[in-house]
Amino acid sequence: MIESMPLASVIGGALIGLSAVLLLAFNGRIAGIAGIFGGLVEGVAERGPSDEKRWRTTFVVGLLLGGVLLRIVDPRFLPGPAFESMNPVVSMLMLVVAGLLVGFGTRLGSGCTSGHGICGLSRLSTRSLAATMTFMAAAIATTFVIRHVIGVEG
Amino acid sequence: MSKQQIGREVVALAAGLLFALGLGISGMTDPKRVLAFLDISGDWNPNLALVMAAGIAVVFPAHRLLLGRKAPLFEGKFHWPTRSDIDRPLLIGAVMFGVGWGIGGFCPGPALVGIAGGQPGVLVFVAAMAVGMLAHRKLMAT
Questions:
Q1: Residue B51 belongs to what domain range?
Q2: What's CA A57's distance to the chain center, in Å?
Q3: With an 8 Å Cβ cutoff, is A35 touching chain B?
Q4: Which residue of B has its CA nearest to A17?
Q5: Residue A88: its pLDDT value, please?
Q6: Which residue of A50, A128, B39, B69 is most buried, as measured by CB atoms within 10 A?
Q7: Which residue of A6, A17, A38 is in closest CB contact with B59?
């Protein structure tokens, strides 16, 4: 249904943009998921409640509620427990490696697809442009090596 | 909690919800489609480039309007990013992120939304991502 619908990607992207605008206009915050989640994970390591921890937690709860809603509306929006059959190339070990790299890399590089890719580029930040071009190139190269050099097909 | 604080939480919840719906509707929560997008020499599906383009098309004009304002509605000031330099940590971090994204097909947002799918792969990825973030903090503190 949503397999090859450019319109769905445009609507989805616009909703993500709207979310970023809300967060910026009302709360003065950048909607970078790695930054929001990273700040929360690091905050948990520190004691006591704080305003910082609270809004970050609320945002992540919103993400999870959105996920639940997506599954209720149409399970195809979210890969369900049948993940293995959807993506048989990636073993659990590879997912651990991927997770470690994404976690460490987004903190070291100060952002991810949303923070640099959408918010940063919208601010015409050359720093975010450099980061976005770098992670896109690295991701494309990695996918190429895994699929066409090592020869695992997804 | 003050009215401002309540407003902040309501906005954070709404923004998180909208963000998740956007990711799901656009196809970003499906790692198979993300990898098909990144695999430009395979059966390339360029649709996901539209997600970023549409997002920017919304945020860019709004950003222009907000630049002239002193403060957001529920917060004392805008927390604008302050750095503009392109340094080594930025690029090394971006490479690490890109490699991880290219392996699993998950970037941070879709992985967190994917928790709602309850499948083991996503949970393992998110746990590893949190460990990676803490490892970075630990390393930077020393």
A1: 3-141
A2: 16
A3: no
A4: B55
A5: 47
A6: A128
A7: A17
Is the dihedral angle over the CA atoms A101, A105, A108, A112 positive or is it negative? negative
pLDDT at B60 over 90: yes
pLDDT tens digit sequence for B96-130: 999 999 999 999 999 999 999 988 889 999 999 99
Looking at residue A89, its pLDDT comes to 55
Q: How much is the pLDDT for A31? A: 96
Prediction pTM value: 0.94
Q: What residue of B is the nearest CA neighbor of A13?
A: B51
Residue B42 to residue A148, Cβ atoms within 8 A: yes
The H-assigned helical ranges of chain A are 6-27, 33-44, 51-73, 83-86, 92-108, 121-122, 126-144
Q: What residues contact residue A128 under an 8 Å CB cut-off, 6+ apart?
A: A111, A115, A116, A117, A119, A120, A121
pLDDT (tens digit per residue) in B73-104: 999 999 999 999 999 999 999 999 999 999 99
When CB atoms are compared, the residue of A12, A66, A86 closest to B26 is A12
> Cβ–Cβ of B133/A6 closer than 8 Å?
no
Does the distance separating the beta carbons of A5 and B100 come in below 8 Å? no
> Which ipTM was obtained for this model?
0.96
User: Is the pLDDT assigned to residue A69 strictly greater than 50?
Assistant: yes
CB contact under 8 A, A25 and B62: yes
DSSP string, B78-138: ----------HHHHHHHHHHHHHHHHHS--HHHHHHHGGGT-HHHHHHHHHHHHHHHHHHH
Q: Which residue has the higher pLDDT, B140 or B15?
A: B15
Number of domains in chain B: 1
Q: Judge: A81–B23 Cβ closer than 8 Å, yes or no.
A: no
